[in-house]
Amino acid sequence: MKVLLLITSEHTGGAAIASNRLMKALNHSGINAKMLVMIKNTDEKNVISILTTFPRKLFARFYFLWERLIIFCKNRFSRENLFTVSLANTGFDVSKHPALRDADIINMHWINQGFLSLNHLQKIIRTGKPIVWTIHDMWPVTGICHHSRECDHFISECGHCFFLNSNKSNDLSHQLFLTKRKKIFSNNNITFVGCSQWLANKVKISGLSKNHPVVSIPNPIDVHFFKASDKLLSRRKMGLPTDKKLILFGAANVTDKRKGIHYLADALTVLTKKDGNNELCLIVFGQVKTDFTALIKIPVITMGYLDCPEKIASIYNAVDVFVTPSLEENLPNTIMEAMACGTPCVGFDIGGIPEMIDHKQNGYVAEYKNAEDLANGIQWVLYEADYTRLSEDARKKVESNYSEDVVAGQYLELFNHLLT
To answer: pTM for the whole thing?
Structure first.
């Protein structure tokens, strides 16, 4: 069986990391899996880039900027929601690519920011090959947004899009909703995979996809690489304090409001006011675009952007708890990685997070946007819970639900079903 995964980037972003792990898991299970990408970051032989010439690289940059310019103009020249929506108005035609022609199954993933346009998606669908669309956010089943937040307009036909500050029913979100319905969803050879049950449920109620089959299969992780190791040795290896309770927070862009840094800052303030605790220290990894340390009432150590897997695993093992105050999430790789290393997690009750963290069994699920409850969760993990049991149960959850063989087996069952 030959499976081709389509995704914008080989490694950049959570969806890319998850897709790369899936490709490797499928290959380990005996499936011939390859990735067709726009941006290739390594010399991996199973990853094929479409940017094979300098002119194509120029076009890719132009496509990206052109789409963002249209969004900028439609949003009254505001940068606020520049990357919360995508139009898929530009991209490359890969429908006749040899790798696609050779594949038995097309497995689409995150294809935005200049990789595939709606017209090109239509051409792929018209090849007649079975298509599995693994969705990592809500964009495939909305007009333009990647996360609808509290908006439910995608259930009908979008319009009045708050991301565009629009009060019109026939705005850009509505127009693209109808275009998606005509060009993509009028065909019945698409099966959706939600990486969380939460996201699968969004597929089931969307006015675009509600008549299409959908299953929930999580992202995989290599549990032989991400595993528990000695905490003290890990701290020394990473140059971190050995006499503190270490709280970890990380994201691709730490200061992105959607990642909830302000809620974490408020939660840490609550903790320090409660008992005057002076043994806490916040460890942060990821890109930092603006200074945020003034918000934090405890010592902060910034590790910068980490692209070395060994260092990432070491930092999870070095800390006592991983906190994700994110306001928009599907199935975060960070939580999965932390839990695989036996590090309990605390996060808000949003998206797929409560599917990963079993409340007070392997971590703590806090009330959404409630900084005080987030503080309660950190306090509970660090000082009240049976930490050894928490750590062991976190690891067991990942082994039984997210290991490569488990996830690859679920995909193999789906693929075999589609080919019979």
So the answer is: 0.92
